[in-house]
Write a structure and sequence with these properties.
The chain has one domain: Growth Hormone, Chain: A, CATH 1.20.1250. The chain has 21 helices and four strands. It has helices at about 1-10, 15-40, 45-50, 55-65, 65-85, 85-105, 110-135, 145-170, 185-190, 195-205, 210-215, 220-230, 235-250, 265-280, 280-295, 300-330, 330-355, 370-390, 390-400, 410-435, 440-460, and strands at about 180, 180-185, 355-360, 365. A two-stranded antiparallel sheet has the order 1-2. Strands 3-4 form a two-stranded antiparallel ribbon. Helix 17 runs antiparallel to helix 19.
């Protein structure tokens, strides 16, 4: 293992197994992130029927957790700097558990929204702390691959959530049907307790970030942590951390501004990356795909099956991203992804815009031919392929490493909060946009895929191979 690591690292000398272990445990927050935000996919139709919600209000129920995500993302950096990265992970796990029980036992729509927001705070915190911790313990030459484990955990979480939805709905005979004393959709939420408890247990087995330890004058412990990952260069790394931590202690919102009082360009780039990642509509696929495919003629069982298969595709292409991101760099990977998303989203927009429509339960829905349905399925999965191998992991890797140490925690929190706001806007608006026509909705996402391509070419910096202290 040591020889393989040394050969892969070039100038770096590190313990690959240990680095993967620490990054994997931190990335479990991403698993909860994916599970919590996607578990509602299989439940949304049943929730709409049970609580007599449709259109905008149903969209709000689905996306309400994202409001909590904004708060969690913004606060996580500050809490982590004061109390440590590990305590934030444990706190996030506790919030996931509370949300799982509350959502599963919700009495009504507003009650459900409250518990979803609680879980959202946990998601927001996990979304910030995982890439930050991984970036802080990872050797520079494999930081992209280790950072991509966050996205791998997210897509695995999505897959497990959708698979459990599929299993529970099939056992009960439908998401709205009774199962073990409760409706099946309620068990979909309660199932999250299992990974939440596991996340807390594993988080307590890994050490604190060396940067947090140095900031709190615990250099002996920081050296021990670095020694468990690095074979050499520990003194130099500690010296650089010490130098940057001195400046980091003075960081505030004012440090997000330049001498002219304007927001630093790098902060704007981080915010824009977050917004583009959501405005291409990826979470429409993971939040609404079961409902979407039922709307164009699939049965509930077939729609859930297709959703599970899509999540498997997402896992496979994330592996591709892990293999490529430290080889070809972040900018090229994002550019390829944007181009592919523009083509596949454009295809979906055309298929839905040109399909004949019919009225179903008072709503206009497209009627796809067999060939049209096949093309739409291929395009939807193609979109997931291009997103999953580029913008999915790439944005989280960049956000974890592109800011200098002085502003990293705060800038990452701001960028992640912007991402959750954008996610909320897209998720809430989709039901209303779909009522205006799926062609219109996917045309909107196509436009932002094209703009994201141009944005990467002009503004996004390449961070491949650079130490965090050199940003």
């Amino acid at each position: 293992m040591a020889e393989v690591a040394k050969a892969a690292a070039g100038k770096d000398d590190y313990y690959l197994g240990r680095a993967i272990h620490l990054a994997s445990v931190a990335a479990l927050g991403g698993f909860l992130f994916g599970f919590d935000t996607s578990v509602i996919n299989g439940a949304v139709t049943a929730i709409g029927s049970d609580f007599e919600a449709s259109g905008f209000f149903l969209g709000f129920i689905v996306s309400s957790a994202l409001l909590g995500c904004v708060a969690g993302a913004y606060l996580a950096g500050r809490i982590a700097d004061r109390y440590g990265r590990i305590r934030v992970m444990v706190l996030a796990a506790a919030l996931f558990s509370i949300s799982a029980i509350g959502s599963g036992l919700a009495f009504g729509a507003w009650d459900l929204i409250l518990w979803r927001v609680v879980g959202g705070v946990g998601v927001g915190a996990a979304s910030v702390i995982a890439p930050a911790y991984i970036a802080e313990i990872a050797p520079a030459s494999i930081r992209g691959r280790l950072g991509s484990l966050q996205q791998m955990a997210i897509v695995v979480g999505i897959f497990i959530a959708l698979l459990s939805d599929y299993f529970l709905a099939n056992v009960a005979g439908g998401a709205i049907e009774p199962l073990w004393g409760l409706q099946a959709w309620r068990w979909m939420f309660i199932a999250e307790i299992i990974p939440a408890v596991a996340y807390a247990a594993f988080a307590l087995t890994i050490p604190e970030s060396p940067r947090f330890l140095v900031a709190n004058k615990q250099e002996k412990q920081a050296r021990t942590v670095l020694s468990s990952v690095m074979k050499s260069g520990i003194d130099e790394r500690l010296k650089e951390i010490r130098r940057t931590v001195i400046r980091e202690e003075k960081a505030s919102l004012r440090d997000m501004l330049n001498s002219a009082g304007k927001v630093l360009p790098i902060v704007w780039i981080g915010i824009a990356l977050s917004v583009f990642q959501q405005f291409v509509g990826i979470n429409v696929i993971f939040y609404y795909s079961a409902t979407l495919w039922q709307a164009v003629g699939f049965t509930e069982e077939d729609a859930l099956t297709q959703t599970v298969l899509t999540s498997v595709t997402n896992i496979v292409v994330t592996i591709i991203a892990i293999l490529l991101i430290d080889r070809i760099g972040r900018r090229l990977l994002l550019s390829i992804g944007s181009a592919g998303m523009a083509v596949t989203l454009g295809t979906m927009a055309y298929i839905f815009a040109t399909a004949p429509t019919e009225m179903v339960d008072g709503a206009t829905q497209p009627v796809l031919s067999d060939s049209g349905a096949l093309i739409a399925l291929i395009a939807a999965n193609g979109f997931v392929v291009f997103f999953g191998m580029s913008w999915g992991p790439g944005v989280w890797v960049l956000l974890g490493e592109m800011f200098n140490n002085k502003i990293r925690s705060m800038a990452l929190g701001i960028a992640a909060a912007a991402q959750w706001l954008a996610n909320f806007a897209i998720s809430t608006s989709f039901p209303r946009m779909a009522e205006a026509g799926l062609g219109f909705a996917y045309g909107f996402y196509t436009f932002f895929a094209v703009v994201s391509f141009l944005f990467v070419l002009k503004f996004v910096p390449e961070t491949k191979g650079k130490e965090l202290e050199d940003m």
